[in-house]
Amino acid sequence: MLSVLRLRRLVRQVPLQTSFIFLFLLCILSVFLSSYFLYAVKRKLEPSLAAGRSADDLYVTPSRPLPFLSGVGGTLSSDGSRTDPVVLVLTWKKCVLYIFVFIANEKSLLSAQLKGFPLFLHSNLGLKDCTVNPKSPLLHVTRARQVFSGPLPGDDWTVFQSNHSTYEPVLLAKTRSAESTGLMHTSVVQDLGLHDGIQRVLFGHNLSFWLHKLVFVDALSFLTAKRLSLSLERFILVDIDDIFVGKEGTRMKVADVKALVETQNELRRSIPDFTFNLGFSGKFFHAGTDEEDRGDDLLLSYVDEFWWFPHMWSHMQPHRFHNQSVLAEQMMLNRRFAEDHSIPTHLGYAVAPHHSGVYPVHIQLYEAWKRVWDIRVTSTEEYPHLKPARFRRGFIHRGIRVLPRQTCGLFTHTIFHKDYPGGPQELERIIDGGELFLTVLLNPISIFMTHLSNYGNDRLGLFTFKRLLNFLLTWTHLKLQTLPPLQLGNKYFQLFPSDAEPLWQDPCEDKRHKDIWSKEKTCDRFPKLLLIGPQKTGAMALYLFLGMHPDLSSNYPSKETFEEIQFFSSHSYHRGIDWYMEYFPLPSNSSSDYYFEKSASYFDSDVAAARAAALLPRARIITVLSDPVERAFAWYQHQRAHADPVALKYSFHDVITASHNAPVKLQVLQKRCLAPGWYATHLSRWLEHYHHDQILVVDGQTLKTDPASVMEKIQTFLGLENQVDYHKTLAFDPKKGFWCQLLDGGKTKCLGKSKGQRYPDKQSQVFLRNYYRDGNIQLSKLLYKMGQVLPGWLREDLLNIR
Ligand code: A3P
């Protein structure tokens, strides 16, 4: 029951689009899995539709879920063995979501009844001319208006037959055989649950046919009572980039401009206020043939018909300019051009050539955009990566909303039908149920990028969007709309508020990103080692010792945050990676520079692990864990030493035993004191993002008593070429009571006064031992799994528990 509730909560928290896409992918994955099981493994699987199955969690089972009744209309395969065509079950919560995909193979029974079900299957069929049953209660996005004429892909379809009223056809098609009588067969059927109380949707093929994909979307929506469902609203914005930029002979002429306006009016009949969004580079105005220059003039005479956005004046890539004022000057030229030609300058949207400077972020571009144009919205295909396109998302940086941009199959060079890569039919395929159709189906907001050249020549841009609209209106109930970019930006983050937070990746991990990243920047300026804390376990001592190694260089201290950068765990993250890099020296010899940083707040931060792994996927991670009971007490003392008023007011015992009724400040202090000691919880989070081989757990106690041995282990872990013998470079300082750096002349350099206390009285031991007991047991299991040695204090603790 608990897990059901947890799942429900989870489903509510996951953005709808994500869950939707997740399920969609899961199903496709299942088809592959199924095929694997069916064709490759062919092992016996138990029927999975047992009435008593507990299906609280979402899962997909490649299996033979519905046993066949032998003999009833069934035939045996040529080698006499029984094979069943039913291979996939996708379930989500008992009685809520059952979707079956039936894939026949050469050994499938040609005709069979599902055991215990009044349903007959006929397999291995070729189908054609598909139609949607207008009475199907399943339909939400799908519209039953027209027959899809022509063959359906594949010749291994399964169709369903039944007299029982529980089965309602969703999709129907004819068999492809010559003697076909025109009889319609059911290729997707909905089980209304009248037979056994369970509703299902059964697909007679995989999801390679676009109508199946469309119906699958509706099946998810219906069977989850609209919990996994997108609204019917779809917002579309079509950018036409490179206005005035195109090469002579490929630009728009007078007739093309007129066609653009006419098509816009035509599209407005179905998409209210639809307006093409034109991005201009003024430098190239009148740079075509005479006929094309007249086209430029006509475009400007229609200035109020369109929305406009500035491109770069000379179509240059912003990341090539390190200097913000050079960028601003260029923008000013374009702005003056706009003002001289009455082009609106207040729409707040811009895009950059080749996405340069948007992502990876070139901060100079953002600042210049804001200064010159008051830009508040832009778009890119590059975040987090170009591919897979379905994962593209938006984010907000420095007050600019960056929206995901979609591909529509048109590029600067695709200007003639006959030359379209793969032939003209390929563009039609993309539109009619293909990638472009699916983009609109699965994304509430789609911003498409096209180019001037797509509207001259064969006007493929006009062809594409007219055909797309026609297809969408024929096959779906989607309500198509448009909004100017600023409003679209607001809409996007209303729908996907969690996207606002960016997740910075290493620009050098993606070739496309690297190509549009400033040459003045280098990925060798990122740390390769993170010392993640937690506080009061000895991380500062370790930081000092690491800094003594000739191959390692630490970050510059931060004045703001007690020397630590705290990039991944604090608001500084939003300043971007350029800010972070400034904390590391410019690499002298990039191959040998090994930077590291220590921020004790990373260990128990909810977000640091994911952020660090996105930017530094290959980094090594070191955490120092000491007895959490002692850590909590040391932390409390540390707060008192720093005159924290709450710590001064309350005793340690008061702090750790504070109840829910205690003053809020006390509760906050309690959490800060105790939570970092939930080692297993925090370590698990890091393990979700880093392979266990990348993480080293250092025993805080050994670090105190035998730091040289710890340093030996760390050097091996980091794979450093120079092995330093720390027995020779560290010395125990009896006055300090700790190990310190040994200086020339025999003197020692120890950590400051605030590090290395001796506490006479270890208070509240019993209470805290109990408090951390379960967590410590979990930690020991985790360390065992990671193949790491258990710290001495943990072994001792576990012995006492027994
Ligand atoms: P106390 O100051 O309470 O004794 P951190 O740097 O992670 O905040 O941890 C501080 C703790 O590091 C100190 O806590 C001390 O116990 C421990 N420590 C380990 N080795 C040390 C060293 N060589 N010098 C000083 N403190 C050390």
UniProtKB/TrEMBL annotation:
Cross-referenced Pfam families: HSNSD-CE, HSNSD_N, Sulfotransfer_1
Cystine crosslinks: C740-C750
Entry's EC annotation: 2.8.2.8
Binding-site positions, 3'-phosphoadenylyl sulfate: W739, K755, G756, Q757, R758, Y759
Occurrences of domain Heparan sulphate-N-deacetylase deacetylase (ranges): 233-437
Family matches, as Gene3D superfamilies: P-loop containing nucleotide triphosphate hydrolases
One of the protein's GO biological processes: heparin proteoglycan biosynthetic process
InterPro entries xrefs: Heparan_SO4_deacetylase_dom, HSNSD_N, NST/OST, P-loop_NTPase, Sulfotransferase_dom
Domain of life where this protein originates: Eukaryota
Keyword Transport: no
UniProt pathway: Glycan metabolism; heparin biosynthesis; Glycan metabolism; heparan sulfate biosynthesis
Catalytic activity: alpha-D-glucosaminyl-[heparan sulfate](n) + 3'-phosphoadenylyl sulfate = N-sulfo-alpha-D-glucosaminyl-[heparan sulfate](n) + adenosine 3',5'-bisphosphate + 2 H(+)
GO molecular function terms noted in the UniProt entry: deacetylase activity; heparan sulfate N-sulfotransferase activity; hydrolase activity
Alphabetical UniProt keywords: Disulfide bond, Glycoprotein, Golgi apparatus, Hydrolase, Membrane, Multifunctional enzyme, Signal-anchor, Transferase, Transmembrane, Transmembrane helix
Sulfotransferase domain boundaries: 527-766
Domain Heparan sulfate-N-deacetylase N-terminal: start-end pairs: 101-223
Transmembrane annotation, as ranges: 20-39
Active site positions, chain numbering: K536 (for sulfotransferase activity)
Its membrane topology: Single-pass type II membrane protein
Chief place where the protein resides: Golgi
GO cellular component: Golgi apparatus
Record localization: Golgi apparatus, trans-Golgi network membrane
Family from the record: Belongs to the sulfotransferase 1 family. NDST subfamily.
Name of the molecule in the record: Bifunctional heparan sulfate N-deacetylase/N-sulfotransferase 1
